[in-house]
Design brief:
122 residues; Rossmann fold
Length: 122
């Protein structure tokens, strides 16, 4: 899976993704540090990348557009240390198949993982 990390998540997630065989970039590495959420979605869609974020705007953008992608892994529930968010991401990558992640919104918090298939109902 190809992944784009949003500015709101740590680049500490890059090695975790690599350990699971995924090619990933942080928005700051590809000139998107100040990009709008819409621009990030467009980039991810064009590059066939899932987005990892803590920004609630991404599911809303996808719901309003009726789009079937890109997939989003959304961390909710407050601030996480790098170790906590890396552990949560590893849990997601172990529990949810790539084929599901690229076509869904996966909401993650300290206690559970919820997956909603895209496109979302309006």
């Amino acid at each position: 899976m190809r992944v784009l990390l949003d500015m709101l998540v740590s680049s500490a997630l890059l090695p975790v993704l690599s350990d699971y065989g995924h090619e990933s970039v942080h928005a700051s590495q590809v000139g998107l540090a100040r990009a709008t959420d819409s621009a990030l979605v467009d980039f991810a869609r064009t590059q066939q990348r899932a987005i990892v974020t803590a920004d609630l705007d991404f599911p809303q953008l996808l719901a309003l557009s009726g789009a079937g992608g890109p997939g989003v892994i959304l961390f909710r529930g407050g601030n996480y240390t790098d170790a906590e968010i890396c552990g949560l991401l590893a849990r997601v990558l172990q529990a949810v198949p790539e084929s599901v992640l690229i076509h869904s919104i996966c909401v993650v918090d300290k206690k559970r993982i919820r997956v909603a298939a895209l496109p979302l109902p309006r």
